[in-house]
Design goal:
The chain is α/β, with parallel strands linked by helices. Helices cover about 50% and strands about 15% of the residues.
């Protein structure tokens, strides 16, 4: 089928190429002419504007939005609303908050345009490995787009998980779980890193755990790659950002009265990683010194008296 891809970043560009390789036609738009040129060389039809993109599509027209969540997605969807018509479908494949899906669907429905929220996982490996797709929307809208979903996903990696909002909800929880898994691996390897007496080769450990171990996973495969000689791991700063979905998962757990300590603490650890001069940590050290005489480490800090 023919589909419009809006946003040609790391995900959108690779998704475009995968669809082309699976025999679909893709009309591609991005604000960057270089991004448009890149996918056009792979067979996509470049569009210099959303208007041009919609003009190249055949009814029922389908546009997949792969731009950053929030205002960029909102603006894009609103623009598509003005250009598309009855029977067309807009897919949001970004990391939008699931609570925004129902209002977006209601707005598009004013013109008879259907909305699908497609939780999309796979990262930069999706081109070759396929994308896990968690899709929310009406059965009718999903049926229109299903050939594309099946082309993007590996065998067994796509499901229509529920009504509008369900796709982004499931993807949100997926990312929350991801936070916890990565934190568990990180803490375990930190413990082994501190065991100087064994002189452990942590790349070797990560490598053997991938075979037969109960903790083997794709994230462990990536751990092995990250720790491989020559990977540059020793130059990486321990500053960890969060995409927002870990926060939303923690807040959702609070709202629903669900204990989720692992996910929540993993999120807090990301916050902690961003402040090498944490006031809280310095106060804890000072208190330990006050009540127990425990030694403190002192060094001049930027903007503070030495």
């Amino acid at each position: 089928m023919k589909i419009g891809m809006v946003g040609l970043g790391k995900m959108g560009a690779n998704m475009t190429v995968r669809l082309l390789e699976k025999g679909h036609e893709v009309v591609a738009f991005d604000l960057s002419p270089e991004a448009r040129d890149s996918v056009s060389q792979k067979g996509a039809v470049p569009a210099a504007s959303l208007d041009e993109l919609v003009g190249h599509l055949d009814p029922p027209r389908v546009a997949w939005v792969m731009v950053p969540a929030g205002a960029p997605t909102d603006r894009t969807v609103e623009s598509l609303k003005g250009l598309m018509s009855q029977g067309d479908v807009v897919i949001d494949g970004g990391n939008s908050n699931y609570k925004e899906a129902a209002p977006t669907a209601a707005s598009l429905a004013e013109k008879g345009i259907a909305f699908i929220d497609a939780g999309t996982s796979g990262g930069i490996w999706g081109l070759t490995e396929g994308y896990c797709l968690m899709v929310g929307g009406t059965p009718e809208a999903v049926a229109v787009c299903e050939p594309v979903f099946k082309a993007l996903a590996p065998e067994g990696g796509y499901a229509h998980v529920g009504p509008v909002g369900a796709g982004h909800f499931v993807k949100m929880v997926h990312n929350g779980i991801e936070y916890g898994l990565m934190q568990a691996y990180a803490e375990g390897f930190e413990v082994m890193h501190q065991a100087d007496e064994f002189e452990l080769d942590l790349h070797q450990v990560a490598s053997i755990w991938r075979y037969g171990s109960v903790v083997r996973s794709w994230l462990l495969d990536l751990t092995e790659r990250a720790l491989a000689p020559g990977s540059g791991f020793e130059n990486i700063e321990g500053y960890v950002v969060d995409s927002g979905e870990g926060r939303w998962t923690a807040l959702e757990a609070i709202d629903r009265g669900v204990p989720a300590p692992v996910i929540t603490l993993a999120l807090y650890q990301r916050f902690a990683s961003r402040d090498p001069d944490s006031y809280a940590n310095r106060l804890v050290a000072a208190l330990r010194n006050q009540f127990g005489g425990h030694a403190v480490r002192t060094e001049p800090r930027s903007g503070a008296p030495s």
